[in-house]
């Protein structure tokens, strides 16, 4: 990745957000380590990772809510935290625990948020609040006190606050947390609408199917580091392909491949060969050389779930480094 641009540099062709060597240590716990994240302008980037992998900490550092122990953050062309006053009005964020007043209604809370928006004229606040409430499906509950809200309603109100004014960049930390299936579908629609309007979106999620359905790009975090990032289609192509080989001599095929350090295992459908570190022609060559009859060879796309599992469960650092290099190279 190229170095960070100077503060105020033109954002054309640059990332909406970018981190370099980002690190956060909490009293001996390394929450985030050496994260180089790039959110391309106009992308919907899904940040995936198991519990505790550093997603929320990374997002909080990106928004200037947490001070990094080391590293740099650039947000909408502004170096953070110095450029916060310029960048943040263009950024809508749904992060854990937005400061809502429990004794005010959802609408009253949003009116207060509206008053604090530098890009919203006072006369436009009631309209903006009404539109945001409708957009997140909170109309029926808008007059009720916040303290009586369900988790899903709180999420919707947080989202409404993030969308009060048109943004260049929207950051959503686990936006479907606490939402029912209808709410989850609505989030998907809102993200698609934002994307269509040219807004860059960063969304963290555990829901792989959601990410696969809504995102153009993915960054996978594990134990505080980015283990893969790039275009979703390229990552899937590079990271999760396997080969299904039909042969009457499955055991001989598996032995021959493992002899060449190619991961392979027998399955009821045939011998499944991991293509992470090899290619289909190379697999066929190994089999033919070993005298194994090959009836059929098919490439399989196993989806984001498989890729995610392999990236986050790889047993050794060497496995991860190998997989990361391969995926990053292919995704470029
Ligand atoms: N304020 C804090 N003080 C101490 N440790 C923290 C703090 N915030 C996060 N951590 C630790 O940093 C690590 C990363 O946490 P983080 O919340 O960023 O992960 P996450 O990927 O968002 O997890 P989840 O999916 O469970 O929300 C964890 O080990 C967590 O316990």
From TrEMBL:
One Pfam assignment: ABC_tran
Molecular function, one GO term: ATP binding
Domain of life, per lineage: Bacteria
Signal sequence range: none
ABC transporter domain: residues covered: 17-248
Keywords annotated in UniProt: ATP-binding, Nucleotide-binding, Transport
Keyword RNA-binding on entry: no
Record-stated family: Belongs to the ABC transporter superfamily.
Official protein name in the record: ABC-2 type transport system ATP-binding protein
Naturally occurring in which organism (per UniProt): Actinokineospora diospyrosa
Source species taxonomy: Bacteria, Bacillati, Actinomycetota, Actinomycetes, Pseudonocardiales
């Amino acid at each position: 990745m190229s170095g960070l641009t100077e503060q105020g540099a033109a954002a054309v062709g640059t990332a909406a957000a970018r981190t370099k060597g980002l690190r956060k240590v909490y009293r001996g716990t390394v929450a985030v380590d050496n994260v180089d994240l790039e959110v391309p302008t106009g992308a919907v980037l899904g940040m995936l990772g198991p519990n505790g992998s550093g997603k929320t900490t990374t997002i909080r550092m990106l928004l200037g809510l947490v001070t990094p122990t080391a590293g740099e953050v650039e947000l909408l062309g502004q170096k953070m935290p110095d450029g916060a006053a310029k960048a943040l009005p263009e950024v809508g964020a749904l992060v854990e625990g937005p400061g809502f007043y429990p004794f005010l209604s959802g609408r009253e809370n949003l009116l207060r948020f509206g008053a604090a928006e530098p890009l919203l004229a006072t006369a436009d606040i009631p309209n903006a609040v009404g539109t945001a409430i409708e957009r997140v499906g909170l109309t029926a509950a808008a007059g009720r006190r916040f303290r009586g809200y369900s988790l899903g309603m709180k999420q919707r109100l947080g989202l409404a606050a993030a969308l009060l004014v048109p943004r260049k960049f929207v950051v959503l930390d686990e936006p479907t947390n606490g939402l029912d299936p209808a709410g989850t579908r609505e989030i998907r629609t809102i993200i698609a609408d934002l994307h269509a309007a040219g807004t860059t979106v960063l969304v963290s999620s555990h829901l792989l199917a959601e990410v696969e359905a809504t995102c153009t790009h993915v960054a996978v975090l594990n134990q505080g580091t980015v283990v893969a990032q790039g275009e979703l289609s390229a990552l899937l192509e590079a990271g999760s392909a396997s080969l299904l080989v039909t042969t009457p001599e499955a055991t001989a095929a598996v032995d021959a491949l493992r002899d060449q350090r190619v991961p392979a295992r027998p399955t009821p459908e045939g011998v499944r060969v991991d293509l992470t570190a090899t290619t289909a022609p190379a697999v066929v060559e190994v089999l033919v050389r070993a005298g194994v009859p090959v009836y059929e060879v098919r490439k399989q796309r196993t989806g984001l779930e498989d890729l995610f599992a392999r990236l986050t469960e790889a047993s050794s650092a060497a496995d991860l480094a190998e997989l990361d290099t391969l995926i990053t190279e292919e995704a470029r």
